[in-house]
Amino acid sequence: MSQFKLLIVTSLIFMVLGCGPKSPPQTNALLYQEAKIVKPFVLQDQNGQQVTNQNLKGNWTLLFLGYTSCPDICPMTLAKLTQITKELSPNFAINVWFVSVDPKRDNAEKRKLYIDYFNPDFTAVSAEHKHLFPFVRNLGLVYAIHDDGESENYTVDHSASVTLVDPNGAVRAIFKPEFAKGKVPLINQREMTQDLTSIIGYYSN
Known about the structure:
Blueprint: H1 3-19, E1 30-37, E2 42-44, E3 50-52, E4 60-66, H2 73-88, E5 94-100, H3 108-118, E6 123-125, H4 129-138, E7 143-146, E8 155-158, E9 162-165, E10 170-175, H5 189-204
Parallel strand pairs: 4-5, 5-6
Antiparallel strand pairs: 1-10, 2-3, 4-9, 7-8, 9-10
Helix pairs in contact: 2-5
């Protein structure tokens, strides 16, 4: 084969490879190859307004579980999410939903005061457990209430992960916290910022 023909064949091969499907981004997040549609739900935001699946569509949304009496994971994670969304705001518009899994204590007024401290543009939702639990499970997250009915100082166990929902209203990825002995499990802010940039950039093209 002449050098000229070899050059043409090589060029064609690179053109074919370049036109092929791109590989999903390599990230530290749990990335769903096929996004999982969020089932129909009805919740209430911090302004007393009803929110449904339609409120998840059209934007990328990060959802995080918690409760306003949470001593560490919740405020520390919300602080990180505030910084992450601020850093990415020049390139990506990302919504954040704080999902209170303690509806008994966290009414709309209390959720509003809490979320406004971090970012008034964030959404703080909740609902009765019969509506809340299937929604949370659908996000790939879990929670448990330790309420004996005798004290208002009960505790709530919940996932420290953050779920990413795409503009179609489907779960695209879950960001897991880092676990270290003697430390609060928290997301890695730097890694999550990089991963979000890769994921949103990939699926937006």
